[in-house]
Structures are given as structure tokens and as C-alpha cells.
User: What shape does this take?
Amino acid sequence: MKTYLMLTNRAIEHFNRVIGWVLAGLLLMMTVLIFWQVFARFVVGRPLYFSDEIARFSMIWLTFLGAGYAYRKGALISVDILLEYAGKKLSCLLRIAIILCSALFAFIMIKYGYELTDRVSSQTAPSTRISMMWPYMAVPAGGVVILINSIGLLVDEALGVPYEPKQEVD
Assistant: This one.
């Protein structure tokens, strides 16, 4: 059983590595588009008509995928004073309850995000003329990333991987 849990954890780590590269690519694309937009507007005198929209859609995807990625790394803001002062057993139960609540939230994001995506699929973006399904698809995709990372955190709890919240840098 422990072997399967470790394989699951390894697969989730590979999944997160791919998500990390996707996030880096989205950030790079957004940076290049915004830089080029400023350059084209103020130096060339002819701004691009589509760069703002694509950069905005990239930021939406970056936000939703990044939330799931940061969740697994423990980089999201959290109030963990109760975990610090609770005993070992109670803090373990609290972490499991928090992970299960996050997984429920992710499931809701997937279900209703997909319904929302379906409703707006006939609409098109004004300047690029792409379906609005693509920017709205970030909601269920982010939910999938959160759900997969919730499973990873539950596997960590089952394997007894010590929980270490991120420390602030002074």
C-alpha cells in the first residue's frame, strides 16, 4: 500500500512540474506581449489590437493554475495558529479536514466552472474573436489542479510526511 501511495505522490510531483512549466510559459508570454504592446504604442506608434486581451486571458489562467500549484507547495496565505498549538493528533485531524474542504471547493469549481464554460462557449472575445470558452476554462482547470494536489496532500498525511508551513522571510 505504501508503495502505491509513494507512486501516486511521485506522479503528482511530475504533474506539478508540468504545471510549473506551463505557469512559466504563461508568465513569459504575458511579459513579452505587454512589453511589445508598450513598445509598439510609444515607439512605433501602432499598438497591437490583440495583445491586451491575450495578456488578460493569460493572467486568468496563471491565477487559477497558480493557486493549485501554490496550494501543494504550502505557499498560500493561511491562518495556522490553531495547528501550532493543537496536539499532534488534533493538528493531523485539522489538516485532513482542511484538505477535504479544499477538495470539496475544487469539486465545486470543476462542476460549476464547466457549466459556466458551456454557457459562454458561443460568445467570442472582441479583438481576437476566439471563443470565451477558453478564458473561462481556467476555472475548472484550476479546480482539477487543486483537487489533484489535495489528493497529494492526503497521501502526504497517510505517509506521515511532516507538515512544514512556509516561514516568512524577515
